[in-house]
Amino acid sequence: MFLWLLGPVLVLIAVIFGIHRSLSSTLDTRNPFSTAPKTILVITAHPDDECMFFGPTIQYLTRIGHEVSLLCLSVGNYYGKGKERIKEFYLSANILGVPHDKCAIIDDISLQDGPGDWDLTAASNIIEKHLHKLGANSIITFDEHGVSGHPNHKAIYWAVRNIHTKDSYKGIPVYTLKTTNTLRKYISIFDIPYSFLTSKILFLSTWTEFLKSQKAMLSHWSQLVWFRWLYIATSRYMLMNTLNELEIT
């Protein structure tokens, strides 16, 4: 019944991938990470956030020579699988190109995985400690909507925002992962044209990087319930990231 649609869809996919390839040099010249090497701290809330949401960013930055470190602010122990998820986190990070010694995962009583409010002061203190330790000169994390709306994701945004208001950190740029509406979130490559036209910072994965993001997701075996498989297959965040620079007036 729907076979007549197959041809046009395949043509559209081919065109979009062609656009993807042709955009590579353009994207490299319009994002702030395309010049001098930087030490970048990517801050997430749970093991699997690094590949579920930030895979394209992490792989792009490591590919062009930046030093990327990961800071995960909880062990994801909501269902009592924290120890297992720690191992999965390090395996996933390694697949994405971030070595073990550039990763940190925190188990703090005030920052536990779940729907409850996080202690923003505790989160800010931990983040500041790692900024000093790494000498990081850029931060990447969630925006105020947290992509999925998870309160832990949003808490990181507010903790980082609080840090960014301090005079000693105003020179460190903060970039936040843009939350899209549900439709755009699950149309995969079909969101490329719109994202390119509306975003100042866009990271598009190569085919190899896209497969690596999927492989990294599969390393989080304890989390692979049915809807995660759907996410892996359809989410734009497995293929592309759009970022905004945090500006506080």
Automatic annotation (TrEMBL):
InterPro entries documented for this protein: GlcNAc_PI_deacetylase-related (IPR003737), LmbE-like_dom_sf (IPR024078)
SUPFAM superfamilies, sorted: LmbE-like
Protein's organism: Owenia fusiformis (Polychaete worm)
EC class (word): hydrolase
MF-aspect GO terms: N-acetylglucosaminylphosphatidylinositol deacetylase activity
Taxonomic classification: Eukaryota, Metazoa, Spiralia, Lophotrochozoa, Annelida
This protein's name: N-acetylglucosaminylphosphatidylinositol deacetylase
Protein's UniProt keywords contain Signal: yes
Keyword annotations: Signal
One annotated Gene Ontology cellular component of this protein: endoplasmic reticulum
Short name of any one Pfam family annotated for the protein: PIG-L
